[in-house]
Design a protein that fits this description.
By secondary structure, the chain is mainly beta. 8% of the residues lie in helices and 39% in strands. It is globular and about 45 Å long. The termini are far apart.
Length: 261
Amino acid sequence: MKALVAMLFLVVANVQSSERPGGLLTENAPIDDPLGSSAWNIMYNVHIPGARVVFDDRVIVMAPTSAENPMSVPVMVDASALSDVDKIILVADFNPISKILEFYPTRTLAKLGFRFKIQQATPVRALVHTSDGLWHMNGAWIDASGGGCTAPSMASGNADWASRVGQISGKNWLRGHNMSRLKFQINHPMDTGLADGIPAFYLEQLVIVDQDGAELGTIKPFEPISEDPVFTLDVHATGSMSLWGRDNNGNIFEAPLFPRS
């Protein structure tokens, strides 16, 4: 399966090359890929070109070995064993849109749970940036029958979907001194733009703030995040919080996230 998937890496290159001026670069990545993906050089040049990067088993990517539902694959990235993490990028090498999300753990643990759409068997890798300028990389292979990125969302076939877009539900649970577990869902179709006749329509920024309005963390989802996405993270705060969001059509969403009673 991996060999067959590897033959498709040029498709990924053609899609992703538009993300950078001058097309795709061909600079060799500074390390061999422990995941054995033929698209590693492409991922390096598209997402962290010219950067210092190391393989680091302190970065943990938990995911199923096989995707039961290609529209909703659970993943947990945990880089909390590293110090001074300021950015995490999640990518799927052989998805037609490889970047899944960016996460900025301002006042959270460097740990995030979410679900995403998978097109075919692929490595899912976390690229974790620390304040010293180094990227720490690890990941996991997920096998899949495919089609998650090119299938239409459920909302696209529902006449009343527009009335639910942007509805937010969530709670936080006390998990110790000045620490809470936060879980929230926001209703949104997260259309990739790859299904016939359905334009890209997805959340592009989510910001969590505490009761004083100070930022706790920012998530920047991309098209591969699952429809009606759910996120789980641990924040260095207690009490009431709020979520602010924006999608690529300029719609703004906001709601409180109260402690669980």
